[in-house]
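Q: What residues go here?
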């Protein structure tokens, strides 16, 4: 039959005692459990009966578990003790282990289930330790016997040889000799007489301890030396024997007991050392735990400070079962999705990628994963509220021990602002390229128009002069008329090129665009036809602008014609005006605009619209989407030039199938709207007899001008440049009534020549002519003389009328 384990349980709670006893009866039949409810009862039972293990509750009515352990040590009751503690009594656990408790069990949960195993383990370990100590105690022990009396030595040696053969006694006849033998460190016990001639036992014990020797001492004393013996016990001696008649019979037992107690003390010291090491380890672990928690907190703070997503995921990034096991809380601010959505939904990152980017993003991520090198990828996510968020994901690959990729981690940043800035920069760069292209084309067109103006002037002029000289019905009249008509068409083309290149002469005044649109409405309705509805939305508080009324009429007309052609099946054309204030942000997005107050004119059609390529070239001269023969491609180019020369900007917004809107912004001006000027009639006779000076560096134009003026009866002097003009005037006896001069000439401009000639003929008037642009006129100081300016090309009759107007004013 298997031996039962006897256990004594000190517990004052009847409920805990009954539960524990019942549990042992049902689940641990090899235990015999006896219960006591006080500390004194526990100590009494341990003095009366032999138990294998003590199960000790810390809280007893008369004393606590600590006091019970101390009493067990005093009474030298040897058995394993298992303490039952409450949760949170960690400090108590350390104390009871130091006092010799074998183990402890916290009261929580199903602690009763583990209790039998804990007790069984304590009993098994304790018995094994006892067997080791007993086996060690029965081996041949070396006893150092310190005695100077030969009789006592003799008697002791014979007695030990008869009854204690496991002891070997080595005699030291002086304390000095004993200390020398103790240094060999193989003595199990010192048996010494209290009184030695050279040193008593107390001094020998002190010296041994001073030398660090922990060997146990048993003192032999004479009668009446009990006080000295007690002092020896205080110094660390294990026992003493008084020399009486039967003291030799007590010696072997006293030695065995002292050696056993010494071994138990060594074991206890070793356990205490191990416990202290364990405590130090626990303290170190606690310190490391605090450091780790601190580092973790610092890492959490660093992660929280990253303005992006810090993440980690396992599996291929393009697989449907990829699992995100970490995502930083910034995801809720950045995209609106919760952390739990990311963690619980497989491959969540890919499900919210913009459909247009999904295939590419998955392919790039899979390539980073497969190569094991990681990388950077840009794509768009769709946020929970529908926003499109551009992100840049930088990732590294997680590999197993064999180098195979198993997951990825990285940081994903919101780069939407950068992308928008990049798009805005690209938009501005495109505007700049467009502006530079238009400026280059404008310079080319202006140069061509200037040179062409001189040729057209000559062609049309001689055609007019020839017609004047031919009889009505002459056979050549039709040919010359055809030449003149072609020349007039060429002159119209030149004027359009000058308008585009912003080099025409404008006569700006304060205008009310609402009145301009209202006056043009009837004409526009007739132009558009019955299948196109004209709608005007005019701001009644519209501010004035400064522009050439005729040119603005041309702008509205050209845009209306363009809209009509874009709506062959009919539609709606809307003209809208309003006051606007453009802020700095809007101005930065439009290269030719500055912030400030503007008058806006929007012309919107419901036509076929335009694609991006067409929009990029819409204002270029001679660019047209119409078929051959239906347009010159100068209508919108003319509009662009007029608006830009008027200090404004024009923008076009269009998509195929969604119509087109032209937006015109003109600076809002504070001032009264000008009244319409009365139209002056032509003079009764454009001819005269006054002396006129013609200064023109182009010979063909000069000859034509002189011949035309002579045809109208004037006396004409001619000069190819300023020097010839000065010489001609110095030789002339009479006054020069009018000088007709080109503005831009080599060596001396027309304005410089006029200033010098006024010193000779202060009464002389000046009529400037030029095939150059308004910019050239201003540069030569003629901005205040528009009424005395004749724009090339001109006809002989127009020249004569203008000359007469200047002479008669």
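A:
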């Amino acid at each position: 039959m298997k031996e039962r384990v006897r256990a004594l349980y000190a517990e004052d709670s009847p409920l805990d005692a009954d539960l524990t006893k019942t549990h042992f009866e049902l689940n641990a039949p090899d235990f015999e459990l006896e219960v006591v409810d006080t500390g004194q009862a526990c100590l009494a039972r341990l003095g009366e009966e032999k138990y294998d293990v003590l199960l000790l509750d810390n809280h007893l009515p008369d004393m606590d578990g600590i006091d019970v352990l101390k009493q067990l040590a005093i009474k030298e009751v040897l058995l394993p003790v298992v303490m039952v503690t409450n949760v949170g009594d960690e400090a108590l656990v350390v104390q009871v282990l130091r006092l010799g408790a074998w183990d402890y069990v916290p009261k929580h949960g199903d602690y009763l289930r583990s209790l039998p195993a804990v007790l069984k383990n304590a009993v098994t370990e304790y018995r094994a330790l006892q067997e080791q100590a007993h086996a060690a105690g029965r081996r041949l022990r070396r006893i150092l016997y310190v005695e100077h009396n030969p009789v006592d030595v003799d008697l002791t040696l014979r007695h030990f040889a008869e009854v204690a053969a496991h002891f070997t006694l080595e005699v030291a006849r002086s304390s000095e000799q004993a200390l020398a033998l103790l240094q060999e460190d193989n003595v199990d016990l010192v048996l010494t007489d209290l009184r030695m001639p050279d040193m008593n036992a107390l001094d020998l014990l002190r010296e041994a301890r001073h030398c660090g020797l922990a060997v146990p001492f048993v003192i032999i004393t004479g009668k009446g030396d009990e006080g000295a013996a007690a002092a020896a016990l205080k110094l660390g001696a294990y026992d003493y024997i008084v020399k009486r008649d039967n003291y030799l019979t007590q010696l072997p037992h006293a030695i065995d007991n002292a050696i056993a107690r010494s071994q138990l003390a060594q074991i206890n010291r070793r356990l205490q050392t191990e416990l202290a090491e364990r405590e130090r380890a626990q303290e170190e672990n606690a310190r490391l735990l605090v450091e780790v928690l601190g580092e973790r907190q610092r890492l959490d703070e660093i992660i929280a400070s990253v303005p992006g997503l810090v993440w980690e995921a396992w599996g291929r990034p393009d697989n449907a079962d990829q699992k995100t096991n970490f995502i930083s809380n910034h995801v809720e601010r950045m995209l609106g999705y919760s952390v739990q959505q990311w963690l619980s939904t497989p491959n969540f990152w890919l499900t919210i990628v913009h459909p247009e980017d999904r295939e590419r993003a998955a392919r790039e991520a899979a390539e980073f994963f497969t190569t094991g090198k990681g990388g950077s990828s840009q794509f768009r996510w769709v946020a929970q509220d529908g926003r499109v968020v551009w992100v840049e994901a930088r990732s590294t690959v997680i590999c197993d021990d064999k180098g195979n990729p198993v997951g990825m981690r990285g940081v994903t940043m919101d780069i939407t602002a950068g992308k928008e800035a990049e798009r805005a920069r690209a938009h501005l760069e495109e505007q700049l390229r467009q502006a530079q292209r238009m400026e280059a084309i404008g310079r080319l067109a202006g140069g061509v128009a200037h040179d062409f103006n001189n040729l057209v002037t000559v062609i049309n002029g001689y055609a007019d002069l020839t017609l004047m000289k031919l009889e009505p019905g002459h056979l050549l009249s039709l040919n010359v008329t055809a030449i003149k008509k072609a020349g007039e068409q060429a002159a119209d083309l030149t004027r359009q090129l000058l308008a585009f290149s912003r080099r025409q002469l404008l006569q700006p005044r304060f205008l009310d665009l609402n009145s301009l649109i209202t006056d043009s409405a009837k004409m526009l309705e007739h132009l558009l036809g019955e299948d196109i509805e004209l709608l005007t939305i005019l701001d009644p508080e519209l501010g004035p602008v400064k522009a050439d009324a005729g040119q603005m009429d041309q702008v509205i007309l050209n845009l209306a014609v363009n809209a009509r052609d874009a709506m062959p099946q009919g539609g709606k054309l809307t003209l809208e005006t309003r006051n606007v204030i453009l802020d700095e942000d809007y101005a930065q997005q439009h290269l030719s605009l500055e912030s400030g107050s503007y008058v806006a004119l929007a012309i919107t059609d419901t036509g076929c619209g335009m694609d991006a390529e067409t929009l990029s070239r819409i204002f270029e001269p001679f660019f047209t989407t119409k078929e051959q023969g239906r347009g010159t491609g100068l209508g919108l180019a003319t509009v662009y030039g007029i608006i830009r020369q008027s200090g404004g900007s024009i923008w076009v917004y269009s998509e195929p199938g969604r119509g087109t809107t032209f937006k015109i912004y003109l600076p809002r001006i504070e001032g009264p709207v000008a009244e319409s000027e009365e139209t002056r009639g032509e003079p009764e006779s454009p001819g005269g007899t006054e002396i006129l000076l013609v200064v023109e560096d182009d010979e063909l134009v000069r000859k034509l001008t002189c011949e035309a003026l002579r045809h109208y009866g004037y006396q004409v002097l001619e000069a190819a440049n300023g020097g010839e003009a000065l010489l001609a005037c110095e030789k002339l006896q009479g006054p020069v009534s009018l000088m007709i001069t080109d503005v831009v000439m080599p060596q001396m401009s027309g304005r410089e020549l006029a200033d010098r000639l006024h010193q000779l003929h202060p009464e002389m008037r000046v009529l400037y002519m030029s095939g150059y642009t308004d910019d050239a006129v201003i540069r030569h100081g003629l901005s205040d003389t528009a009424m005395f300016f004749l724009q090339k090309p001109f006809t002989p009759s127009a020249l004569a009328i203008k000359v007469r107007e200047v002479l008669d004013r």
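A: Context that may help when evaluating the design: The mean pLDDT is 81. The CA atoms of residues 377 and 393 lie 5 Å apart.
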